[in-house]
Write a structure and sequence with these properties.
mainly alpha; ADP-ribosylglycohydrolase fold; 15 helices; about 50% helix
C-alpha cells in the first residue's frame, strides 16, 4: 500500500506538468475550428506555441495591474516589463500574439513554474509548507532580472499582486481581487502542498486549512476556497483509497456549483465533448464551470489519461490550468504518468528531482 501511495503521488505531480505543457499551444483558443486548423492531427503530444493566435486578447490586458486596461489605470506604474516579465512587455501590445509566444514543445507555463518554486521551498523545509518561504521564492521567480521561466504571459492575479507589492503592501497582503479571481489557475499550486503535508501525517482538516491560507495569498475568494476544500478532499480520497473504493463516486462527490446528478448526466451523455465543455460548461477560467469541466473529463476518460488530457486541450479556453488539475486527478487514479510524455518535458530532470524529494524525502 505504501508503494501504491508513493506511485500515485508521484504520478499526480508528474501529470500536473504534463497537462500544463500539452495544452499550452492551444491555450485560450476559443474557436475549436482554429484548434483543428493549427493542430490537424490533434493535441496528443507536445507542440511549440504557434506564432499566430487567432483569438488572443493579450493586448487588451492591463500591464500595470490585474484585469483589462482602463483609462483610470493609465497613471499607475507599469508592472509588466519593469517588475515582472522583464524583456517581455514588447509582446503585449501586438494583435494575435500568442500568450506563450516563443515557448517550445515541452515547456511549462508560469503557474507550473510556481509549483516548482513551492516544491523547492517545501523540500528545504522537510516537506512542510512555509508561507513566507513561498512568498520569497514567488517574488524571486517573478522579478529575476535574468528570466527564471520561459513565459510571456502572467495571469491577472500575478499582475495585481505585484502592483500591490510595488505600492508598498507587505507580500502577505498583496492579493488583488478582480473579476477573474475565482479561477481554476488558483488551484494549480494546491496539489504539492496537499500531498506533501498529508504524506507527513498532517491531518486532512489542517491540510485543508493550510491550502486555504495559501490560496488566499493570491486568490482571496470564498467560492474558490470551497472548491479548494473539495479538491483537497478529492486528492486525499484518491491518494489513500483502498481497492474497494469507487473512483467514480469520489469524483462525483466532489462537485461544486453543478449538482452531482447533472454532472453524472453529462458524463453518460453521447453529446460531443466540445458541446459539453463549450456550451453547457464554459471553457473559460471561471471556477463555476472549470471545476465541473475537470471532473467531467476525469469521469469520462478515467481509464485513458492521454485521451482525457487531449480532450481537455482540444476544447481550448483555460485548458492549461484545467489540464494541470486534471493531470493530478488522473495520476492519482492510475498511479502512473502519461506514457512517454514526462521525459519530454523541457525541465523534466529538475521536476523529477523535486517530486522525488517531496514524495519520498530523498
Amino acid at each position: 500500500m505504501e508503494k501504491m501511495i508513493t506511485a500515485r503521488a508521484t504520478a499526480a505531480l508528474q501529470n500536473l506538468f504534463i497537462g500544463d505543457a500539452l495544452a499550452m499551444p492551444a491555450h485560450w483558443f476559443y474557436r475549436v475550428s482554429d484548434i483543428d486548423s493549427a493542430f490537424p492531427e490533434g493535441v496528443r503530444t507536445f507542440h511549440p506555441a504557434p506564432e499566430f493566435h487567432p483569438s488572443s486578447i493579450m493586448s487588451l490586458h492591463s500591464t500595470n495591474g490585474g484585469g483589462r486596461k482602463t483609462s483610470s489605470g493609465q497613471s499607475r506604474p507599469e508592472v509588466v516589463g519593469n517588475v515582472i516579465l522583464k524583456g517581455k512587455a514588447q509582446y503585449w501590445n501586438r494583435p494575435n500574439m500568442h500568450y506563450h509566444q516563443g515557448m517550445q514543445a515541452g515547456d511549462n507555463t508560469l503557474n507550473a513554474h510556481c509549483v516548482l518554486a513551492l516544491m523547492d521551498v517545501m523540500n528545504r523545509s522537510s516537506g512542510r509548507y512555509d508561507r513566507d518561504g513561498f512568498l520569497q521564492a514567488y517574488i524571486h521567480l517573478m522579478t529575476a532580472d535574468e528570466p527564471a521561466h520561459p513565459d510571456t504571459y502572467a495571469e491577472s492575479y500575478h499582475r495585481g499582486f505585484f502592483a500591490n507589492l510595488q505600492a508598498g503592501k507587505p507580500p502577505e497582503k498583496c492579493a488583488a481581487v478582480t473579476h477573474d479571481t475565482p479561477s481554476v489557475g488558483g488551484l494549480v499550486t494546491i496539489a504539492p502542498l496537499a500531498i506533501g503535508e498529508r504524506l507527513r501525517g498532517t491531518t486532512l482538516e489542517d491540510t485543508r486549512r493550510l491550502c486555504r491560507e495559501h490560496l488566499a495569498l493570491t486568490h482571496p475568494d470564498p467560492s474558490l476556497a470551497e472548491v479548494c476544500d473539495a479538491y483537497v478532499n478529492l486528492i486525499d480520497g484518491l491518494l489513500f483509497r483502498d481497492s474497494d473504493t469507487s473512483v467514480q463516486e469520489l469524483l462525483l462527490n466532489a462537485t461544486r456549483g453543478l449538482p452531482r446528478r447533472e454532472l453524472s448526466k453529462l458524463v453518460d451523455s453521447q453529446r460531443p465533448e466540445r458541446e459539453i465543455v463549450g456550451r453547457t460548461l464554459s471553457p473559460a477560467c471561471y471556477i463555476s464551470d472549470s471545476w465541473p469541466a475537470v471532473l467531467f473529463f476525469a469521469c469520462k476518460h478515467q481509464k485513458d489519461s492521454l485521451r482525457a488530457l487531449q480532450a481537455n486541450a482540444e476544447v481550448g479556453g483555460d485548458n492549461v490550468h484545467r489540464g494541470s488539475v486534471l493531470g493530478v486527478l488522473l495520476g492519482l487514479i492510475h498511479g502512473e504518468s502519461v506514457a512517454g510524455l514526462f521525459d519530454q518535458l523541457t525541465e523534466h530532470t529538475r521536476i523529477k528531482d523535486a517530486i522525488e524529494h517531496l514524495v519520498e524525502g530523498t
